[in-house]
Structures are given as C-alpha cells and as structure tokens.
C-alpha cells in the first residue's frame, strides 16, 4: 500500500487539536504523511507559526503512530481571502487524499450566518473531507498520550 497524504487544518483550538488526534487514531497508517496546515495573518508570522505548530505536534503526537511522517504548511491569505477558499485552493494545488478539520460546534444557523470553514470545504474541496468533533473523553485521551512521547523522535519529513 502506498503512502497517503492527509491534510489536517489546525489553529491551536481544542477542536482542531481533536481533529489532529482523530486523524492519527482513525485514519493515519504506517508511512502516511500528515501535513498540518496553519493559517496566519501575515508573512512575518510564518516562522513563529512553524515553531509553535511543531511544538504542538510534538506535545500531542500519538506514540502509537511514530511511523507516520509529519509536515507543517503555513498559509498566508491575502487581505480579502477567507480561510475556507484558501484551504480549497491548497487542496486543488497539492491534491491530498483527504482533509481533516475540527468542528467549532457552531449551530447550522450560526454557520450559515457567519460562515463555516468546514461547510465551505465540504462543499468545495476536491478530496474527501472529514469534520471531527471533540468530546471531553477525546480530550482526556489526548492528554494521556502526550505524556508518552519521546521528545527526540525524528517524526518530520
């Protein structure tokens, strides 16, 4: 079986961290590449975003999935560009096997009124889109896993 490229969009919220853990627990297999996507508001934030995201990945990485490789991709939208279309453009360009997003818990009405990144991606991304919802049990499980990670493991490609 060839490796797959799985994109996971994160923003350091518990919802996106939950999506990342969901991807590792339920989707990622040996030799897959998990590309963690981070959106920042300016080019000057790029380097810091890579450092923060790398630290976040190390803190919550699953010790049962150390054979999965990781990448970090930082996106900087233009002034008028929204995150949903930006993610869909990246998906169109890079052609991942799937995109995993966290659910912020908005109601259907809130998502319709203020916009929803996950709704936009479900409707427009040219790959499978999975929206993961975090439960309190998921958060507790993630905290337990984080304490078992070898900090010097070469998990990045």
Automatic annotation (TrEMBL):
<dbReference type="GO" id="GO:0016787">
    <property type="term" value="F:hydrolase activity"/>
</dbReference>
<dbReference type="InterPro" id="IPR006016">
    <property type="entry name" value="UspA"/>
</dbReference>
<keyword id="KW-0378">Hydrolase</keyword>
<protein>
    <submittedName>
        <fullName>Adenine nucleotide alpha hydrolases-like protein</fullName>
    </submittedName>
</protein>
<dbReference type="Pfam" id="PF00582">
    <property type="entry name" value="Usp"/>
</dbReference>
<dbReference type="InterPro" id="IPR014729">
    <property type="entry name" value="Rossmann-like_a/b/a_fold"/>
</dbReference>
<feature type="domain" description="UspA">
    <location>
        <begin position="4"/>
        <end position="133"/>
    </location>
</feature>
<dbReference type="InterPro" id="IPR006015">
    <property type="entry name" value="Universal_stress_UspA"/>
</dbReference>
């Amino acid at each position: 079986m060839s490796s797959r490229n799985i994109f996971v969009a994160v923003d350091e919220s518990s919802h996106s961290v939950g999506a990342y853990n969901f991807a590792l627990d339920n989707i990622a297999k040996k030799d897959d590449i998990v590309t963690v996507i981070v959106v920042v508001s300016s080019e000057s934030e790029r380097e810091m975003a890579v450092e923060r995201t790398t630290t976040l990945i190390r803190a919550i990485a699953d010790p049962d999935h150390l054979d999965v490789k990781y990448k970090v991709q930082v996106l900087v939208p233009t002034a008028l560009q929204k995150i949903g279309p930006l993610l869909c453009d990246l998906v169109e360009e890079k052609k991942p096997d799937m995109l995993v997003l966290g659910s912020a818990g908005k109601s259907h009405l809130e998502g319709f009124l203020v916009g929803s990144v996950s709704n936009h991606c479900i409707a427009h991304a040219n790959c499978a889109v999975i929206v993961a919802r975090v439960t309190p049990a998921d958060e507790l499980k993630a905290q337990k896993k984080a304490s078992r990670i070898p900090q010097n493991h070469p998990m990045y490609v």
